Amino acid sequence: MFALTIWIKEMKTHRTALWEGNHTDENRTERDSREPVNGSFLIRPERRKNMGELKLINLADVQIEEIEWLWKPYIPKGKVTLVRGMPGEGKTMVLSSLVAALTNGDPLFNEEKRHEPISCIYQSAEDGLGDTIKPRLESGDVVQCKVWAINEEQDPLSFTDARIEEAIRNTGAGLMILNPLQAYLGANVDMYRPNEVRPVMTNLVNIAHRTGCAIVLVEHMNKVKDASAIIRGLGSMDITGAARSVLMIGKANDHSEEVYLAHVKSNLAPKGPTLSSRSRISAHSVKERASFPPISCSDVKTFRHISKRNRERSKTHCSAFSQMWTKSSASRSTTSSEATESASAR
């Protein structure tokens, strides 16, 4: 009882000291640091030293921007795209084909129109420049003077590294490939923690937006079988969430040389059809870089990385998604018109 009485007296003394202002700023709560002004709270100046300046954007002042594409609808310019797949199943081959086509200005896999040749940055922590990347690109007749890589022998590269934006601006690159994603997150970033992944991904998204460069991240797949294709990537879902487009690359089986490319996620346009290479492409050859015609819906079932539960959905995406999108848009327009006419009648 005596100890309880002493504790109560100490608490009263401490509370009095707080009210009289004898406490330090470190002991003040965020609510104590605010003072009411016209019914709302404003942060006192001494508490704003670690806060940024408030800047508001009115939607009326925002200009609508048209989406530009490096490879429509698979890879948008100025955005982050994920390319995922199991090791050894064609990711590097497809990306090497893409770089070869872009540096030459050749039509891309499912296109006929030529493009203006562009420069590319090919950054890989898995394959050597001299023994793997250059031989593959040379076999595809790549314009070598348009392909660059950041030297990271002394200083490892990460998504928050200022050298990424500097390299894009200095080379004028329209495409940057970072392979694999987890090698560039940073040593202190746990790829399974959203609160650690999101800031570094946001920094990369901002770099892509400022430079207009399409940034492609190569991602390995997890071991979860028969799961939705959208959750087959390693790490936090915030990685997938930050990307505007997600592509999945794989083979029909262990003995097949046929490579499939499926459009798993697309925020900026209807998903593109699943593509397939019809030719046998060796590990060091990308000569057949233009041989990716759209496959038929029945062929989607052989793409083993699309779960059984989602194969029917993938077939729909393969053949009828654009038609569904058009019908949906027409339906929304009709509904809107009917609502307007109804309101006018009232």
Quick description:
By secondary structure, the protein is of the alpha/beta class. The protein has helices spanning 2-19, 91-104, 129-139, 162-171, 194-211, 237-242, 308-319, 321-345, and strands spanning 34-37, 40-43, 69-71, 75-76, 80-85, 119-124, 147-148, 173-179, 214-220, 245-251, 259-266, 275-276.
How would you describe what is shown here?
The protein has a single domain, classed as P-loop containing nucleotide triphosphate hydrolases (Rossmann fold), CATH 3.40.50.300. Helices cover 33% and strands 17% of the residues. The protein has 8 helices and 12 strands. The strands form 3 sheets. It has an 8-stranded mixed β-sheet with strand order 7-6-8-9-5-10-11-12, sandwiched between helices. Helix 3 (129-139) links the parallel strand 6 and strand 7.
